[in-house]
User: Fold these one by one.
Assistant:
Number 1:
Amino acid sequence: MNKKGIAIVIVLVFATALLGLAGVYIRNSREATPINSKILERVQMDFIGQGITQLALLKFKQLPSEFYYAYNFSVRDKRIAVVDPWEKYLLGPLKGDITEPFALSYSTKCRILGQTKYKVDSIEFEVIIEGNGMKRSIKKTINSTRVKN
Amino acid sequence: MRAYSSKRKHGITLTEIMLATILMAVAILPVVGVFSQGHKLTQKDMRRIEAIHLAESSMNKLLKLPYNQVPNGTLTSNLAAASGTVPLGNVSGEGNATFSISLTVSNYPVTFAYHPVDLNDPAYDIDKSETWKFLDETTDGAVFDGSGVHRPIMVKQYEISVSWTEPNNVTPPPIRVSSLKANLEE
């Protein structure tokens, strides 16, 4: 059996294997950077969502009667009006688009997790924020006591 | 005495060994370069991830502070409030990296619109939603833009920025996160 030149063949095989490994390594490194960016975007979206939740809580705190009127009329009793007061209630700073740090759109949902016969409600605010192919949901639940004026 | 064999012994020649070594070196050098570059990129990514974690951690601590304990303006050193401290300024990270965390707090005017119910309507009954007549949209009592005593600022915007310098003295774009804090205590 002629073994002349076998060393070169072996080296070429090893070299090809090493280049293959390097190729895989480069590809993995390239994939890691976008994941890194996604982490930042997710964090940014979560904090913006928490901020919008604060606005929803402030609106509720400042306008509790208006909140209950609109919610009970449109959601609980499912009444129809020319202008839906509940839909309008959730507009303004509770729904919109922002461009910084990147293009995002957000909206706010809300539901009362209580029973009408009790005077204490659990109110769940949910801010849904979307952008760059991601969707995040931030929820905040508070307890509220109803007092009839 | 052993007879001399004229049959030639086949083996690896010096030329083959040298050629193989050269080929191996040519193949290995770029691979080592790639791994070295990859290591540098990984370190760079780790610094960026650490900056993101620092920004996230500082913002979480900041959001837990009561509204009135966070002053407006730009802060570049620790914010020591009555109910906690938010680490700001220079923070040492892993791998000899130093991160600089700054906080900017500004007013965030908001206006809430709503449709009030006509409480003066004769048919109005608080327990019967069919009697509720919603008036036109208004913002009465729900403007918080700081333009008057009855229109105070009720929301602040927090922006945290984390910057650092790479070992090659390049400063990457800072990590920025922002959020809002409403005055829910009053």
Number 2:
Amino acid sequence: MAKRHVIVGGGTAGWNAITTIREIDKGDSEIVLVSDENPYARMVLPYYLSQEIGESHVFTATETRLEKLTVETHLGRRATSLNPDNNRLILDNGDEIDYDNLLIATGSSPVRAPVPGADGDGVHSFWTIDQAREVTAGLKPGARVAMIGAGFISFTILNALIKRGVELTIIEIAPRILPRMLDDEGAVIVQGWLEERGIKIMAGVEVTSIEDASGGGKVVKLKSGTDVNADLVIMATGIKTNLEWLEGSGIEVNHGVVVNDHLRSSESNVYAAGDVAEGPDLLSEGKVVHAIEPTAMQHGRVVGANMAGVDTAFEGSLLMNIVDVLDLEIASFGRWDDEKLEVVRVVQAGRPAYRKLLFEEGRLVGAIVLGRTRDIWATNDVGMIKGLVQSKCELSEWKAHLKKNPFDIKCAYLAAGAAGNLIPQTLLGRPSV
Amino acid sequence: MKALKIVPEKCTGCMRCELACSYMQTGTFQPSKSVIRVSAFESHTSYSPYTCLQCDEGWCMTACPVEAIHISPAGAKEVGYDICVGCKLCTIACPYGTIFYDPDAHKAFKCNLCGGAPACVEACPRDAILYEEAEVTDWVGPFAAERSKGPGGVLSVRVN
């Protein structure tokens, strides 16, 4: 009998698992997808908000494609519990699905600051397509928008908000903006850049409540006594992994579902991938949750190969992010915030350009790249930095060169032979198709 | 499969490849929009072009959240401009540093082998760039290593 692969979650990890299984078995198995939303590419929602793309552009795994890949779908359904002893998944409508292999790819959800009024009307998250539709509909040119949280998610929609002509105030509880992507030196540059362009930034402040304003709109009340008036409030105060439904299943869970180098959980026919998985880390022996798009994609493909019977080990995920705000590029890689490492920092005088490189012995293991869009894309640096970290290339004498000249990446990359280390590397042990 | 083979020893640094590439790709002569890029070594006494190897993994292609990058009939990983939204994930996924972002077009761009007739190869007067059946290797690495350490190289040591 054909094997039945059940995929729980239709995001990047789940979709990549499905396409990889079909690349290998050409339809020779049953695939069942359970997803509470129709699958789409979350990563491009900011471009939907800015109205650069239409809604159809967001939906990658369309009904037609799922049909073509002979996927049985249970859309609009949530998994509520898992019983690994008899290989059974239970859905919110009581349906039971038996599996040979199961993928947990339930991702994460936005969390709101625990303050009164956080769930009130006019307060939005920006995570799902439905929420993106709500925010898109609520934006009028000249509208006052208060964005609570200055993390990666809020920064990905900053350009879109400005493009839509709103008046933006960013409120952050941490002492600096982008606290999980940028250090103090970088944050100062970015904050200055945004303030010069008319964005109001309040860092190191605490929201005490969000209330309805008397003349309509909302008022965000701060502990300092200041009120921030807004027509629309966006709450981007972090995400949490969607693990609750696994309670009682016996599957080992820490920050995420703990998986081995084949992305198998404590049950060998139950896999986990993406935001919900705590898997191998490229730069350490430990396990880690990297809730980023590239990790979800890689996890999904590795799981797909393993489910389809092609034994595939995963070397580990690499933390990396890139976002631009009003033509200032911000990228960080690997262990960018590990101050125990050998660190070199350089700021270019007179222009918003900052580099931080972090070394462990003879290897580059982390970096921050910050600069004007035009400066950054005049070089090959962003990719080459990733290549140096990923290839674990021994820099030998080039380390001293990079410490002296952190902006001269290309020379070190080429001469250290990083490309030679990378050429044989593939994720699945074969060329991608 | 044919590959763009770089023979750095033959490069004179004339930059014709960059001009030809940008002209073919964008219709303008702008080295900053070229996807083959020439580096100088030893205080500008030697040069080498560097471009996408069309690697087996296709890190850019698999990273794209909207599947904008596909394999062309010429075997190149090619950006579909009508699908690319300019999110730049491909540029941090590519460990070779050979996919770029065009701040004017708001799109990613990279070598597409000019559909199988690379303009850089045609433009090179010294056969430093060849398009032929070849096992892909790190064409530039050993050349760069040797020249970076020698006289005038960035790692040269002063001898009194």
